[in-house]
Amino acid sequence: MTTAAPSRAQPTQPPRTATLASALNRALRDSLREDPAVHILGEDVGTLGGVFRITDGLAAEFGADRCLDTPLAEAGILGTAVGMAMYGLRPVVEMQFDAFAYPAFEQLVSHVARMRNRTAGRMPLPITVRIPYGGGIGGVEHHSDSSEAYYAHTPGLHVVTPATVADGYGLLRAAIASDDPVVFLEPKRLYWSKDDWSAEAPAPVEPIGRAVVRRRGTSATLLTYGPSLPVCLEAAEAARAEGWDLAVVDLRSLAPFDDETVAAAVRATGRAVVVHESAGFAGVGAEIAARVTERCFHHLAAPVLRVTGFDIPYPPPMLEQHHLPGVDRILDAVAKLQWEQ
Amino acid sequence: MTVLDHDLAAAWTPDAHGPRRDPAPLLPDSEPVRILGTPALRRTADSPGGRELLRDLHRRLVVGRRFNQQATTLTKQGRLAVYPASTGQEACQIAVASALRPGDWLFPSYRDTLAVVSRGVDPLQTLTLLRGNAHCGYDPYEHQVAPLSTPLATQAPHAVGLAHAARLRGESTVALALVGDGGTSEGDFHEALNFAGVLNAPVVFLVQNNGYAISVPLAKQSAAPTLAHKAVGYGIQGRLVDGNDAVAVHTVLSEAVEHARTGRGPVLVEAVTYRLEAHTNADDAGRYRSTEEVERWQARDPLTLMERYLREAGVIGDADVAAAAAEAEELADRMRTLFHVKPQLDPMSLFAHVYAEPTPQLREQAAQLAAELAAEAATEERR
């Protein structure tokens, strides 16, 4: 994709493509502008604009209090956000990297996820926790984890992850507007990917909880999310050479889970493969395979297969290409879907 | 070419390397502040409203002790699932309520039910957590009391965040977080103090040092000179007070709250006290501390100290003691009546407040439970 050169007749025509990073930045900016209760806090989010520059320019535009550089302590950051939310603010927390968010796990599980429930609905906590996640960026140890299963397993949290520029904007706006806590997982290897998208006319914000069919197909259905979506779309293109017409579903929301869209997409083909980067054992893919089997058993021509990262600690960057699900591994799984019958 | 310059003082960048403030003004009192049995009691009594304050603190103490006794009895009768008594710590518990203004926020831990009740929350609603019929039975916004926190010190950063939010809004709210001696070892305590210092949040931390974290004495918990000294490392004020002297705790806490309210920064108060009962009714304190030690602290019972010194000072007499005792009995009577009634439980409420709107999956699960309940009811009817 390329950006069209501005024409001489219309020098102010906005760019028609954007990166995921810029759409996320725009979502934060629009949220800060529209709602004075929105406050961003995290490590390096102020002056620097975040290590991935997602909060670039926000402290300058809205002031240091609205986009706060905090001490380097994730439990303290999230715990402080809890207190701010109790007092009527709408905090947006940035965790610098997936594996740096673990110190905040107790705050997330013991307080953020259950405060509404504990207080019989009297004290909701509208907190968004943004976490860059996943590998494929050549990051050294502790910079490439996929931690979605921990969060999706926790009742009281919504867990969403965008895979497109438009969803980056729409889902983040929806997360910040939600009265429930949302873990917002940002696939960091897609930060600089571009789509046709204009910040001047962003699509209407959809509610959290709906999957979307990214590619229609008739042979089998790939179920995926976040960083694995482009890989699955590439695999679907490559599969045409083998004579397979693959559908691809982008889950977008892991919790709540869109059983309806997923089951319909699997019934349409009778075969399904779940694809994600994180380890397979007790992962999100296991849940999806079980749900699909429970709902689509009589429509299935083959067991639901999973293509996931291996059950190993995230590898050193020079070996990560062997760990991450790639096109070939996905096609190998598709080949095992009992076509001979 | 750069000329070699090894002068650290000249290169030192206060914003980047720290201000190198003099720690002396932050250091806690060299001896715990005491007022009972000292000339300061006379000064307090003679100050405007002083006698009323002292009588009020005495009354709260008597009522507070009765609350602890009655809750312990209810536990023995099986009406509470568990009760971590604050017997012996009532001076701290009641001073928390008297030092805060309406609008200020309290962040209690599980042993602080008396502080919550003293703040005005109904005993029945306060004790739902320990009765087992609901996690937090009161509306936190009605009396500005956060839910009782069971994971230790995790509520301390909440107090900081709330105080920070209040300051951002230009409101004079102060938040007070209650932590025990064991809780000071938790990372969240450390992070809360650090954030409080950096944000200059109007927050006060009260550490009730009752000597034991269940069975582990402070000697195995911390090597700090005192727990109040922990304040200094975060650039905030430390204070040390006799936690069994209700007047001293009230005075030091009130000063700390006003210190925070007026933008002079957070304060960490350590109150040295003693847990006269076991950790909970399920604990056996005889396994880790001696009868002699307990007796030494029984001799410093906050209620006995208060009554003796206020009588000596002519602040209270038989009539005050009798009136306080009558109020205490009234509370105990009320608690017996309230807890005699079986709690109303609605199993379907399990799904009501997980999210603002139940997810499709929770709707399915709620339907499943509803069907189970209907089947049970039908079976009951057939019997």
Write up this protein.
The complex is a heterodimer of chains A (341) and B (383). The longest helix of chain A has 15 residues, at 20-34. Chain A is globular. Chain A has 12 helices and 14 strands. The termini of chain A are far apart. Chain A is 33% helix and 19% strand. Chain A has 2 domains: 17-196, Thiamin diphosphate (ThDP)-binding fold, Pyr/PP domains (Rossmann fold), CATH 3.40.50.970; 212-335, Rossmann fold, CATH 3.40.50.920. Chain B folds into 2 domains: 21-340, 3-Layer(aba) Sandwich (Rossmann fold); 347-382. Chain B is 46% helix and 8% strand. Chain B has helices at 8-11, 14-17, 39-46, 50-76, 90-99, 113-118, 123-126, 128-131, 140-143, 156-168, 187-199, 246-261, 291-298, 302-312, 318-340, 360-382, and strands at residues 105-107, 175-180, 203-209, 212-213, 216-217, 237-242, 267-272. Chain B starts with 7 loop residues before the first helix and ends with a helix. The mean pLDDT of chain B is 96. The interface between A and B is large, with 48 and 42 residues.
Write the layout of secondary structure elements.
The complex is a heterodimer of chains A (341) and B (383).
Chain A: E1 17-19, H1 20-34, E2 38-42, H2 58-62, E3 67-69, H3 74-86, E4 90-94, H4 105-112, H5 115-118, E5 128-133, H6 148-152, E6 158-160, H7 165-177, E7 182-187, E8 194-196, E9 212-215, E10 220-224, H8 229-239, E11 246-250, E12 253-255, H9 259-269, E13 272-279, H10 284-296, E14 305-309, H11 320-323, H12 327-335
Parallel strand pairs in A: 2-3, 2-4, 4-5, 5-7, 6-7, 10-11, 10-13, 13-14
Antiparallel strand pairs in A: 1-8, 6-12, 9-11
Helix pairs in contact in A: 1-7, 3-4, 8-12, 9-10
Chain B: H1 8-11, H2 14-17, H3 39-46, H4 50-76, H5 90-99, E1 105-107, H6 113-118, H7 123-126, H8 128-131, H9 140-143, H10 156-168, E2 175-180, H11 187-199, E3 203-209, E4 212-213, E5 216-217, E6 237-242, H12 246-261, E7 267-272, H13 291-298, H14 302-312, H15 318-340, H16 360-382
Parallel strand pairs in B: 1-2, 2-3, 3-7, 6-7
Antiparallel strand pairs in B: 4-5
